[in-house]
Amino acid sequence: MMTDRLPISEIWVYLSGDPLFALVLTLASYQFGYTLYIKFNRNPILNPAAISIILIAVIISQFGFGDSPKEAYQQYFEGAKFVHFLLGTATVALAVPIYRGFSEMRGKIMPIFIALTAGSIVSICSAVLIAKYMNAGESIVGSMYTKSVTAPIAMGIAERIQVSPTLTAVFTVITGILGAILAPYILDLFKIRPWWIRGTAIGVGAHGLGITRAFSVNEQAGIFASMAMGLNGVLSAIFLPYIYTLIHG
Q: Which of 43, 64, 65, 195 is exposed most, by the fewest CB atoms within 10 A?
């Protein structure tokens, strides 16, 4: 006895409406990107996060996630919010490798602090000035202030200084991806070899995604990247709202 079969289109509509599908899609796309990354000897161009973002963007925009881009994102995020929640806990969990590698940081705290401060100032000033030079809107310019802080902290700062958390998240992720991809080539170009220096630079410039890249290459680089990102996040959360208010009234 034959039974009626549902068309593929109806099956897809059912799956895309299930929040669990968005979570599975997120994990599967990242696993696919990570597999490519390992297969090609950890080539920084094949960043797993970048590959995952591209795949998910194509799928939710082309295959029936809502009637508009906004609806598609909202429907996807409804299922993927659990991963978003883990961003904060993952940031806090970086205290573990920092604690384990604390002995390696002795004697290097002051150089790291100076480099971190200089890097943060240059990152903010360059991004804001370029955005203003290109006549970007105030929402985009405001979001540039926090783009070099890890996403959970950046979005919190964005809400405090009353700029768009969504734009902030977008620029933060783009900064992390570009930093994780380009940092190894830039550091090699300037013949910067010590792992602790490379890790610090990547942690300040590429935050969470940079840390992932650093740990995949060298543990010491990952430890110093974690510390640099953590310190940068703490200092930015404390001082950036006051600096923004001072500048913009």
A: 43
